Amino acid sequence: MRIIFIPQFPSEMRYQEWWMWKLDQEFRNAGIETIMLGRDAINVLQHRRSGVEMFSPIYQAIELETEQIKEYMLLDLKDDDILFVADLSFPGFFCNVLFHKRPKKIFGYCHATSLNKFDYFEKVRGPKFTTEFAHSKLFDKIFIATQYHQRKIKLDNSVVISLPFPPFKPSKIVDKKYDIISVSRPTPQKVDLELESSVVQKFGQINRPISNTWDEYFDNLAMSKILLITAREDTFGYQIVDAVINGCIPIARNKLAYPELLPEEYLYNDERELIEKIKYFLKDDNYKKVPKLLCENKMNDFYKNLIKEMIEEDETPF
Fold first, then answer.
1. Which of 115, 158, 183, 285 has the most beta carbons within 10 angstroms of its beta carbon?
2. Do 274 and 306 fall within a single domain?
3. The pTM is what?
4. Segment (H or E) for 83
5. Edge to edge, what strands does the sheet with 224-228 contain?
6. Is residue 316 part of a domain?
């Protein structure tokens, strides 16, 4: 048995950067022969980047996928090969190749789709989702991070499997320098400016540091008492995970996937509730009451469960 692993372009300071090598490592640790498509191309293309970018650089991402297709077409497929696409960039080129050359088992991870009205491709999200939905039929199973996204995407072959913990050591910083921090991208999806303005009026400045490395990012969270999240949509909530493991209290909306990650006392329904919760956690030593993630067990078992789901799949839907 082999896993033919197709990573996404590893954007810096996003989980694709470490998920690529961590998945490859975990597959091999499980004793499974693994073929990562585009490994050499990634090493070359990464040198063409300049600084931290919000998304994968378009031309490099297309070039990588083209190289992955080329390598795949040269493979001699075996009867027990497993193809795993991570992260599914629907409707990428690779899915089209699977109409012509496919192993018996195909799996993919989908952390979000164009059903998100704040999506980067919002202007074309109607036809884009039609293509995504059609491509989904090629897969035996599509893994999704949360029940919220499973309900939203409504794919018959989807399986909720969470996401893994970041493979980095927590910050060693213990002294708190900031009351409130925001690490969200400045987009309508990630930041509600009106709500954040109300927080600034009540509590003063919201710290917005620029982090160029994972260590800097973790240190900034560790130096803060509260991580403020005002997102209107999210693909999972890794900010919450990052905050918790670095001793920072996340406060998020009581919607999206957040209720699957946080206990109720760390969620707010409106501006009044948000203000009250910030007041509470800034009072005395309440900022030390960092929550335990509700999905902690699933995150700990992520790789084991992912491999189990793929290996125990006996038949394809064709």
1. 183
2. no
3. 0.90
4. strand 82-86
5. 178-181, 224-228, 249-253, 267-268
6. no
